[in-house]
Design goal:
The complex is a heterodimer. Chain A is mostly helical. Chain A contains 4 helices and no strands. Chain A has a single domain, classed as Cytochrome Bc1 Complex, Chain D, domain 2. Chain A is 52% helix and 0% strand. Chain B has 2 domains: 172 residues, Cytochrome Bc1 Complex, Chain D, domain 2 (Orthogonal Bundle), CATH 1.10.760; 80 residues, Cytochrome c-like domain (Cytochrome Bc1 Complex, Chain D, domain 2, Orthogonal Bundle). The interface between A and B is medium-sized, with 17 and 20 residues.
């Protein structure tokens, strides 16, 4: 039994070590996807209402708050994700579209845009 | 079943709460009060933009944003709708094959009457718009109806608006026909209800969101919305009708746009125009 546990641990460790660089690459891809979602009109179009300190995000709108101090405003990243998924839960009058609930973005795209804005 | 009931109740409460915040009178026939709504809307914008004159709201965003006003005033020096008005006048005065003309279909020969449209027709039990009656006039005289969105109908409507410039908008909701108020209410609900994949109401952008940037654009205030139609939009490069604009807005919220002159668009026009009572006709207008 102990042998089995040890070998599983070893296999796990090995997997973690070898997977680590892949995870790092994956994160970069995720940020790139998040940025594309943020800026693209036919995808998230977040820029239409939220300013963000990214040199590519020009002529942002200001219907919603700017993307600053995100870690302080959302210590729990899941709350940020929930706000993007369905902002009407907190405020039924909000102008912000429920990006997850109404299938505007895929779950993967929402994860990516969360990572992207969480840098700011 | 219980869950469905709860959900329905929850949605109802949410919808009611939402609407209660948006306007001052109610969303059912018992409580809705058009005049209270009109005054509440004016007061809302008075406190939002204290520097703007109420009478200036017929100029849309240019009433509240100085920068865009400057560009617009330059545009208005050589109004892009000028030729369309002239063409509209020619079309208006060209007799039909039977020798009659548009002037025979309208009160006062069709001159200076734009401010009374749309109106509630007791006989037909529906809201009548100017464009609708232009086409009815044609059909009654054996002519084919015009296409709704642009072209000749917009030009004729533009000429008729032109002859009505500076006339006070005067939309009546006859008290002796409860269906008129129901039509107003239907339009009001349409304006405040959220719709489409983007879950937007007209009010989201044109009440709460007015004069706040969406990308580089500033949505206009709802007060004054219909006064300058038909409109020459730079984006279109031509004149278009109010319902063309409704369809475009509808599409932008990722809803399925309805057809020109459907009942609810006419009711929306009735509601919006009532909000403008006391302001003046300034159509045709020029907008971005």
């Amino acid at each position: 039994m102990r042998k089995l546990t040890t070998s599983i641990c070893a296999a796990g460790l090995l997997a973690m070590v070898t997977a680590a660089p892949v995870v790092a690459d994956g994160h970069e891809d995720k940020l790139a996807l998040g940025k594309a979602v943020y800026l693209n009109k036919s995808r998230g179009n977040c820029i239409s209402c939220h300013a963000i300190n990214d040199p590519d995000a020009t002529q942002a709108g200001n219907q919603g708050p700017p993307m600053i101090s995100m870690k302080m405003r959302f210590p729990d990243k899941r709350m940020l994700r929930a706000q993007i998924w369905d902002a009407t839960k907190n405020n039924p009058l909000t102008i912000m579209p429920p990006l997850g609930k109404n299938w505007i973005l895929s779950e993967e795209e929402i994860d990516a845009v969360v990572e992207y804005v969480y840098q700011f | 079943m219980k869950i469905i009931k709860k959900l329905a109740l929850g949605l109802g409460v949410a919808a009611a709460a939402q609407m209660a915040q948006a306007a001052d009178s109610g969303f059912d026939l018992k409580t809705v009060d058009p005049e209270a709504d009109r005054i509440a809307l004016q007061n809302y914008f008075k406190s939002r933009f204290p520097q703007a004159e109420v009478s200036d709201y017929v100029n849309g965003i240019y009433a509240v944003d100085a920068d865009s006003r400057e560009q617009w005033e330059e545009l208005e020096e050589f109004p892009p709708y000028e030729f369309a008005v002239e063409e509209g006048e020619v079309l208006f005065n060209t007799p039909f094959a039977n020798g009659k003309g548009y002037a025979d279909c309208f009160e006062n020969g069709g001159v200076g009457i734009r401010q009374n449209y749309p109106y509630w027709s007791k006989e037909e039990g529906t809201v009548k718009t100017l464009e609708m009656e232009i086409n009815e006039c044609r059909e009654a005289n054996g002519e084919k109806p015009l296409k709704w969105a642009k072209g000749d109908i917009a030009k004729i409507s533009a000429y008729m608006a032109w002859t009505s410039r500076d006339k006070e908008i005067n939309i009546e909701i006859p008290a002796d026909d409860p269906r008129a108020k129901a039509a107003y209410l239907d339009g009001k609900k349409f304006f405040y209800a959220k719709r489409g994949q983007l879950n937007l109401s007209c009010a989201n952008c044109h009440v709460q969101g007015s004069n706040i940037r969406i990308r580089a654009d500033l949505p206009s205030p709802q007060l004054g919305h219909t006064s300058h139609f038909p409109v020459f939009r730079s984006k279109w490069g031509e004149l278009g009708t109010l319902h063309r604009r409704y369809k475009g807005c509808h599409k932008d919220s990722r809803s399925k746009p309805l057809s020109h002159q459907v009942e609810v668009y006419r009711n929306l026009e009735y509601f919006q125009s009532y909000m403008n009572n006391g302001l003046v006709i300034n159509g045709p207008g020029a907008r971005k």
